[in-house]
Write a structure and sequence with these properties.
five-stranded mixed beta sheet, alpha+beta
Amino acid sequence: MFGWPRTAKYGWGVGLLLLFFISRVPAGQAEMKDRVFETTLSNGLKVILLENRKAPLVSFHVYYRAGSRNEEWGKTGLSHMLEHMMFKGTQKYGPEEYSRIIQENGGETNAFTTRDYTGYYATLGSDRVQAVIDLEADRMQNLNLREDDFVTERMVVMEERRMRTEDDPQAFLLEQLEAQAYQIHPYHWPIIGWMEDLQRFTLADLKDYYRAYYNPANAFLVVVGDFRKGDLLGRLEKAFGEIPKGDAPRQDKPTDPPQAGERRIAVKKEAQLPFLVMAYRVPNLRHPDAYVLEVINAVLSGGKSSRFYRRLVLEKQLALEADSENSLLSKDPALFYVYATPLPGKTVEELEKALEEEVERLQKELLDERELEKVKNQLESAFLYSQDSLFFQAMLLARYEIALSWKAVDQYLPLIRMVTPADIQRVARKYLVPDNRTVGTLIPLPPKPGREAPGGSSGRDRMIR
């Protein structure tokens, strides 16, 4: 299993986590709708269950529809701060007891904050599942939020921000770019929050946020693994069913008007190399064009046979790396990213021109059917193989549930298979145009005396972990 530490890490491609941690899935695997059981407990808490007896393990997940998009101007970073505080104990369990108990039961646990949700999970032996049920039910309603813990953890989060963003030139550029791309929508601010807000918000703000968002009406459970449905549901009802339902906060958010022209931003930071990002506004999975963009993303950057790697890295020798990312599973329409680092001696201007040429090729030339078939096969294989992991099966269900519904998982492969060369050309012409993008450039500054310039992260996960 893959443990995710509770520290801030930025980058791109949450979807790639689902697609590229892979192992074999049996041929003829039934669709999710035929394997998943959904119900609600007596207090309205949604439960999504997938029995999988490949190993005597259970991956138990709790998701709250409370990410950075649910915060307010001036109080950014509350979601991630609350994630930290969820491990500080309840009236029944002391600080850090949650992690200790899971480890004593042979399991591993962690949590992650994203723009759209906060998730908590534990994977442990199926005969020990009661331990995590009791712990999660308790902290859903009985969290101890103490001033001393709040002050300490806020300092930890502020240090995370310094290390992961302010001292990472690429992450800092991305943060500034998104603040330009989203001017009204709450994707405008970073998941970890602005430093000024971290310094400003109070324990009372955190308590209000906990009461508003951490309740059965705004949460759901995903359990995947070796269990008997009837037995598990009885346990869940007993532990969670008496928690007051609460009220589900409104999830609709204001949207930005159509972009009226290209936006550009430049950031000067100590760095070893320049960095370039072009971010185009695109739809999410609620619109069929998002699946065409999935294919475009794979054409441009899906491995060493992709266009970016072959043309920019190998043939032209312009880029140290060149990649793209599609925001299929964001709750609200987001961005399609194209980004690259020039090789030493090459300029950002040369690199930008080369990236634009590759995008323009999609707009001017119909994709060869053989190249399209290869890309579809890659996407299909990666999508199926990822589901061999109990953890990633649960993550897949949860991320679709947040974005639309877990049932939409079954739409992925059929809609990918339907994409045609004409669809790719049409979508590239519609969205991947200069007037629809925000361009960010990192201008490297020499390091101060006695310091080594940071290289910048090339990580790809926008979740706070």
